[in-house]
Each structure stands twice: as C-alpha cells, then as structure tokens.
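Example record for the data management plan.
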Amino acid sequence: MSAEVERSIPPGRVADPRAAPRPTPRDELVPAVFVGGAVVVGLLVVYLLSNLARENLYGHFLWQAQAWLQGSTTIPYPVPDNAYYQDVMPVLDAAGRETGRGLLPFPPLPALVLVPFVAVWGLATDAQLISAVAAALVVGVAFWSLGRLRIRPSTRLATTLFLGLGTVLWYSAAVGSTWFFAHTVALVLVFTAVGIALARERADDLSWAVAPRWSVDRWLVLAGFLLGVAATARLPVVLGGVFFLFVGGGTMRRRVLSVACGAALPLLALAGYNLASTGHLFNPAYEYLYRYEVGAYSELGYRAAWSIEDIRYIPQNLAIMLLQPPNLRLECLASLGAASLFDHDCPALAPDAVGMSLLLTSPAYFLVIPAIRRRWTDPVVTGGLAATILIATLNLMHFSQGWVQFGYRFSLDFVPFLLPVVALGLDSLTGRWRVVAWVLIGVSAAVTLWGVAWRSIYGW
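Corresponding structural encoding:
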C-alpha cells in the first residue's frame, strides 16, 4: 500500500485488510438464515393472532390509494364511511363552500404501497393484515441488519426479539391503522439503510482510499435513497442521516456526499408532489389539523399561540416520553379485586391513551447504558445516539405525541438507529449482568403484551 493511501486513511480505520476481523464464514450464515426465518414466521403468527377480528377504524391510506387510481389527489370527504375522520382538511371552492373532497396531511408512501391491493380489492383491502406482514418484514430486516455487527449470535437473536416483542412495533402491527402503518413502512427502509451502513463499516474494501476526492460509494447512495424514501412515510426519519456521519466506512466526506446524493431524489419528489397536489411546498393540512386539535382537545395541553413544531412543547412531551405512568385506580381494585385488572369500565391499571414512558414499556432500552460506558468511542454508538437525539428532539417539539396509543409510538422513528446500540450494550455484558439483560427483554415483552391486550379491550 502506498504512503499516500496510508495517509488518507482516517484515524481509527484499519489500514491493512488482513488486520481486520473477517466477515462471518459462509458455513455460519446458514444457521443464521434459519434462525432469522423462524423468528420472522413466529412473530408474524403473533402479530396475526393479536387482532383476529382485523379491526381497523382508520383507513386514510386506502382512500388515498383509491383516489389516485381514480385520477385525483383528494379523497371523497365527508362520506358515510369516513365522516368521523378528524384529520382531513375539507377542500373549499372559490366561494368558501365545501366541495365534497378532502386533503390528507400524511406523506404519500404508505398509500403508494397499498395501490396494488386497492386496485384489486378497493376499500375492502385488509390493511391490518398488510401491516402485520410488513411488521414481520421489519423484524427480518432488523435481524439481517444486526448481523452486520460483530456480536454474538445470542445477542443478535435477543435484540431482534426485543424489537419484535418488547417495543411498540408489536402494538403497531396489531393495530395497523393509518399512523402505525406509516411507521412500519418507514422501518423496513430505514433498517435496510442502517444495515448497508453497518456492512460498509466492517467491509475490507479500501477502494475509497484511492478514489477521486468527490467520488461516492454506490452502496451508501442506496442507503441514502432508502432513507429519503422512508421520509416520504415518516418525515422525522430523515434526521437519521446524521448516523452516516459516523458509520459507513471510508471518509466522512464520501459518506455524507453519498447519502446526500441518494436522499435528494425522493425528498425532491416529495416536495414536488406536495406542490402539485396542494399548491404548497409543505402540506397545509398539517396546520389545519393543528388548529382543529388545539380547539377540540384543550385537555392535552396544546397552545394556540405556539406553532405546530415549537421548542416550548419539549418539557411536557419529554415527560410523556420518559415519565408518563399508566392509569392507576385503587378504588377499582378495592371493589372488583383481580377482575379489575382487565375491566373496561373500572380498570385498576390500564394504559394512558396520551402515551406512556418508554422506559416503563420497553425497559430493555436501558441496555444503551453499558454501550455508552464501555464502547463510547465506537462510531455505531456515537452515530446511533446522535440520530436518536436529533429525531427525538424534532418529535418532542411536535404538538402531538401520537395520542390514542400504547407506549410511545414516536420511538419507532429512531429505533433503527438505537437498536444497534442496545445490541452492543447487551453484547458487552457477561455473567449475571447478561441474565439481567434477558430479564429486561422479557419484562419489555410482558408489558407490551399487556398493552396489546388493552388495545382489544378499549377498541383502540
């Protein structure tokens, strides 16, 4: 290797490919494929059994897909089957009269995913079933992504099970309605982008060291493209691009340039769609929804003088994210006893529809602590935490935190970046501390099962 190439290698990178740990041998990949496949199939069964009635009260994306197939960007509204939708902005004519059409505030990708199904089954399309299948696909892609880390197979399996059973992904798969389906669609793409970056981070390919100064990595261009497409389902995930400042191999300049080039096209396409369908660069239905909910739900603490994204919302929303407890009613326990634990009318303990603490519903997230303590210089840890903080901050500035939910569904925006940190934290543990980690994952799954059961009881 030439002196020029050696000098171009950033500190902390491996100059000699032979000095780096080799990728997992092929004979070790076969068991991983079977394990991952079994996990995906098993969790798909769990997700399907979690909502046998296929209840799904909100099908905004079905209406949008049907509207596109009929040559329109607005949906029929209000009509008997969607008149109860509160987050549709009526389209008015020049005289200010309603036209019988409505504009959705949501980014378009989830509706685009449903177009082939709606073309066959129309509004009768089982979006909840599709959501459950998509959530199982998320688990599979996450399992693959975690395999790009140098961790033990048991860690990879445990972390995947935590995602599938111990986070709000399970609840999201069980509900499958508009907001949750958008999360699931985005997760498939973001986990794939993260997996590509992790694979490039551990690759032995040093071609970047002799590449032209402003060249791009085609794999990271793909990762950026996937992240940009994911943002057309869930806008906050685009801030996860900061992850690639740290992870992806090569130089920071090349990583940033590659990801930016990939993300630019879908983001420009989203802006173009908004402009063509609404006449605005940003969908005006967001502001309409905000003004409606400020007046309709004063008990949620929304402030008319504040904007839809406002730093002043952070304290109260951070309390929901980290501190919000379930609803406890001791009088119900005293009068009904054990029966009150799942009593609809007088529950002793039930989820709060506003949201619940992420640390109560998914305590295995505490495994980021050993990752920070023992591997704080690892770029995966640094990048994962940076992406998590940026995305969480944007979401905490948002007026709503995902009302009528179990747990904190906005956490799904950053889980693809935080999950590798959880995996590294778990992998650093040994002995009794590793047992404690498995217990935390088990508790996360048990609490989420409780939340899924209450979904059925409350009809959420």
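Summary line stored alongside the record: The chain has one domain: 34-56+126-458.
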